[in-house]
Amino acid sequence: MVATIGQVSQQRYDELVTQSRDLIRERDRIQFTVGDYALEIEPIGPRGGSRPHDALGLGVVDSLRTFAEDIGVAPATLEVWRYVASRWPADQRRADVPFHIHRVLATITDADQRFTMIGEPPVLARTGKRRWTEDKAKRRVGWQVTRPKTVQEKVNAVHDLVTDDEVATRVATDLLRRPKVAFKVSTETSVLDRVGAVHELVRDDEVATRIATDLLRRPEVAARAMTDTTARHSVNRAQADQDRQGGELVRQRTPALQQIEHTSEFLDLVGACAQFVASAGRIVPGLRGLNYTEDEKATVQRNLARVRAAADWIEGAVATGQVTQEEGLARLLAGE
Question: Are 14 and 61 in contact (CB under 8 A)?
């Protein structure tokens, strides 16, 4: 069976690739040539200066704009061609490397490094051949790639899309509806179009977790995200699961507990104590600098009294085996 790519045979595909590369090389040659012409009209001068208008001619910007209009290209495009031409002398340009790759690698400051690197293309996993692609070049110079693959690249791409707080809030809220993402986040102390683009980039739970964590560090985003009932419940459930795992970890790491046969009630009791301590350790540091009303302080004091009463009850039950609650204790624990 003859291999096909799209609707053409492999042989025809190879022919189209060859012909297209010839056309692109011609396009690249034109871009470099026009860039050279623009350099001839206005050579690249020292940084920070601009030739003033005078009676003999136009300034740099006006000269280039006039040239761009007369040849029918956008001034910004002409500026790019001129800049790239200035970074690549004719004897350093590679006919087998597209103009847009020259443009990316042109940002390498050291000329020797720039000229050496372009002749050392990476190996493409798909073909096993050495050839530059736009994303490969962007990775070499530290730019955000067009098709992110690694977790960090996807995180960077998402951050570029969520600079607006409304978008960030929608994304954080949606991500927290994933139980796994909400759980992982709890361990770390046009809008629709952009939200959709972000969702395409955060299908991986690890990426989604990193993004949700970063977004929730914005106070306004966190506050608005927590108004979503599903997201809030997911976070609360995740925190409870985290505390429960903390209790399990205490049980596993305490040698004294490992040496004795325990009832499930005993282990649950130790785990509950560990959960309370872990929760307090997570919450209390965040209270720094907060001011509470007298009613709020009274509410906290009432609940602390319940905690102390429960602790005394536990201590007495362990010491004497007596678990019956006195009437006053029962009412206190019930919040009456």
Answer: no
